[in-house]
Amino acid sequence: EVGLGEPVTMRTGVVTVTGVRAAKQVTSFVDTATTRGVWLVIDTEWTPRHEPYLLSGAEARIRATDGRSFGGDSVLTTSCTPTQPGVTFVCSFAFEMDPAALPGARALLPASLLGEADDVAVVDLGLDEATAQRLAAATAPIKLPGITVKAP
Questions:
Q1: C-beta of residue 124 within 8 angstroms of C-beta of residue 20
Q2: What span, in angstroms and rounded, lies between the C-alpha atoms of 63 and 56?
């Protein structure tokens, strides 16, 4: 378990959640989704360790302090594409959430796919009540950037 901006070394790679944003509308590639709740977007860096490996947005979750979980299959496709070991990708994941679940929420990013979560990075997103309110009130739409290689 780490905080925002701290790298986590897992069996398949190293992941760092570098930022948190929110919007009522998010566009990913060609898909656009609007919610009455909030889209929480986490920006990440992903570096596979020993072989090309995908960091899956479909497997990632946001866990609220009340135990609710947000994520899974979504109208927005978000993942970090497999890259060669040692190459860092910058990518973003979007989670449709209840704004009331933002304070204290944590990101759960598993090292493996298909429910075989033997190694999970748990990231405290630093969402206190004031930050959560500011994020829930965000009105500007977010266009997720394409997955890119981080410049050395």
A1: no
A2: 16
Please report the DSSP string for 56-75 in residue order. Answer: ETTT-EEE-TTS-EEESS-S
Distance CA 140, CA 24 (A): 8
Whole-structure pTM value: 0.91
Contact 80, 44 (CB under 8 A): yes
Q: How does pLDDT run across 40-93, given as a tens digit for each residue?
A: 999 999 999 988 888 888 889 999 999 999 998 777 767 777 778 889 989 899
Measured distance CA(117)–CA(109) in Å, rounded: 9
> What are the beta bridge partners of residue 93?
42
